[in-house]
Amino acid sequence: MGVSNSLPTFSTLSRSMMNRTGAASSTCCQESRSRASKQSFRLSTAAWLGLLPMLTALAFQSCNGIGDENDEETFTDTGTGVFILCEGNYQSGNSSLSYYDPQTRKVENGVFQRANDRKLGDTGQSITLHDGTAYIAVENSGIIWAIDAETFKVKGQLTAGAGNKIVNPRYVHVANAERAYVSDLYSPFITVFNPATMQAVGSISTQQPQAYGYCNTEQFVAYGDVLFTNCWCYSRSILVLDTQKAEVTDSIVLTSWQPKCMALDARGKLWVITDGGYGTDAASFGDNEPHLYRIDAATRKIELDQVLDTDEASVQLALNPRRDTLYLVNNDIYRMGVAESHVPVRPFILAPVDAKGRRHKLYGLSVNPRGGDIYVADAVDYSQSGVVYRYSREGALRDQFRVGINPNGFAFK
Predict the structure, then answer these.
(1) What share of the chain is helix, strand, coil (3-state, %, to 5)?
(2) Residue 62 maps to which CATH number?
(3) For residue 313, how many C-alpha atoms fall within 13 Å in the half-sphere facing its CB?
(4) Is residue 352 part of a domain?
(5) For the whole model, what pTM was predicted?
(6) Residue 121 resides in a domain
(7) Distance between CA 345 and CA 342 in Å, rounded?
(8) Span 311-356, pLDDT tens digits
(9) How confident is the model at residue 71 (pLDDT cuts 50, 70, 90)?
């Protein structure tokens, strides 16, 4: 495409990073991380690789709050509920997991800790549900938990540094009963593991250069024997992973920085939304303008590239159950058909506002495959308990409830 993937100078980037705050900047893939403190604590990839096994061991021995089995609560939920992952605050160790029953409208908060008498960890990044097991990537703790979706009990765990290439795990994609993939914030590898045994079985080089300590991969979207994965931190790239060859065979370079979320529609079109980088003027990194792309997954050609409004929180996208309607968060929530060529001017759902007229920070978006209800995570101010809004597919508010700090992701049973 002839688009440069070069980075700005370090001094320019440093200024823009120093200016990141929760109120004014685009976020790096679903992490509030107490914004400013995140930027003041940067370790090189090499340092992380050397220190993480020791830090992880210490954290889980001294800070995990493991007691005896008498302190564990018993849950048995065989219904069609919703898991809500709450990121917590970076370096605070206050990630949590909530569970919501759409039929009774009852929410249980902190179910991971209550069921296992141990903390979930620091910076819960993503949750993936497959065949009765929920896989939770807790990024800054360097761990992936596998829990039973009915009892919420831990079935296994995969920890960074334990004979694998994991540093800070981000997203999990389960391909089948024997193979799953995990992306990473710092590692230049995608780790392959067995989801039944929670043991690493290999790794795939991303072939990507490191950028200021990051060599990031994010979400996965499957298309035949191909996995697309977006490189979010300081990148414009979407990688094409051939699962049969177990190698990266191609890439798609965008015109905008930091592809954040992806989804594949019913026509085989890959939708991608970027956050545009952190900058707020031409002198800083990126242009801070999110873009929405539609890409043909077969030819890998960009068909649509629309510039969106500067976002105050966290751009997101999701598809309805038939995968013919796209929802996206760009300050407010918009809806469009996948055959349309432009995002509507008027929002489908307006973001809540506080008493002073300030718009809340919408931080997560997903659609329940059973019935099409829309779930929206509201970080509020990144420090207090977040709120989840449940809307009908027509946009009517059906329920709202409090969860943990910085809710960012959903998984539907």
Answers:
(1) 10, 40, 50
(2) 2.130.10.10
(3) 26
(4) no
(5) 0.85
(6) yes
(7) 9
(8) 877 899 999 999 999 999 999 999 999 999 999 999 999 999 989 9
(9) confident
